[in-house]
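Handout, section B. The chain below has 440 residues.
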Amino acid sequence: MVNVIGVRFRNDGKLYFFDPGALWPTPGDYVIVETSRGLEFAETVTTLKEIDETTLDTPLRPVVHIATAEDIRRNEENHASEREAHRVCQKKIAEHKLDMKLVRVESTFDNSKILFYFTANGRVDFRALVKDLAGVFKTRIELRQIGVRDEAKMLGGLGPCGRQICCGAFLSDFQPVSIKMAKEQSLSLNPTKISGICGRLMCCLKYEQDQYEAVRKQMPKVGKEVMTPDGVGVVTDLNVIRETVRVRVRKGDGHEMRDYPMTDVQRLGQASRTPQPEETEALQEYAPVRNDDAPAANPDEQPAPRQRREKPHKQRRDDAAAERREKRGESRAKAEGANPDAQGGERPSRHKDKADEHTGRQNPVQETPAAEKPVTPAAAEPAKQPAPAPQKAEKPASAESTKPAQPEKPAPAQRPAASGWKAALAKAMADAVEKRDSEA
């Protein structure tokens, strides 16, 4: 905790804290304080008090001394020189033909610096102006561009309410204001009625915004149905200041507008009402009904599994799937009846045919049971007694005669059937063995 006093410069409204040290100035006394711009003349506003150091944005600067009569006279002379500097600067601006408006001229207490505040629509090149002013006043010159709100704060004036503008009286900082605040406070959206002398939205729109938001959260929205002491009605208007709700309720064959306190109106979701018979049936179907008169359940007894009720759309889906499976079975049976060679055999693989096309091999046909297509005796005999292997010493007369004949590849149009391929292969092998034995 530190001891501070509050001072104010030029009645701008913002309060600054300084460390008084061993001094005890009272409100209304003038003091000389040390600032970032140098020594300044200020007026004491608050008495000595203690505040937390963590609440301070900048480190405290000391109070040099309480102002004397000589300091007061010097401050008046500085104000006179500021008026002269304002006149000279206006003349120089006209000479340089700069698009800028001079607002105020301030001089430090020790005349070490003169500040010129101006407004402009865009950036202004005032380097030549600064050189001319420095040549006239022989001191440090500083030009600062400000906004329209700061301009109104420096110049002062009366607001639309007839009182002194807030920023020039007591506001220390500007708070953000939006058009949404005017809508929530049910104000006219006419710019001339909600704007201040600066041309921006009035700062006073922010004062009651928090209260409006807190009350509106507790009130129903316009157009919603609510439960009133006279029955169900529709909200037509809200009065946040009086905390009342205007509701259109039915009266006989017509309707009537009535105002109710906010506490007497309930939303339909919060109002207690008797459920309709169809709602009770739906609850009994999909949720267990609590019976307080039923005996308490034994904790050691395992509860019976709850039977989940099948939904109608799931039953329809299962019936449709079963019907599709039955149709596929019938179509498959018809296809097998139309192609007797394919009965009992394996279904040819579409992907295997494509693989054989890339490798250059012939896709073998599917196997047919022996009962359907008997094997010839010539083909069955080699299977029982395989021919003896040829001796190594005996060399064949020619390589072509000893090489077993390969079965000819059928043309694509005369591809063998999809059954009995093992029997055909066995027959071809038997013929090759018999031809080799005869040549040997």
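Note. The longest strand covers residues 231-239. Compare this with the example in section A.
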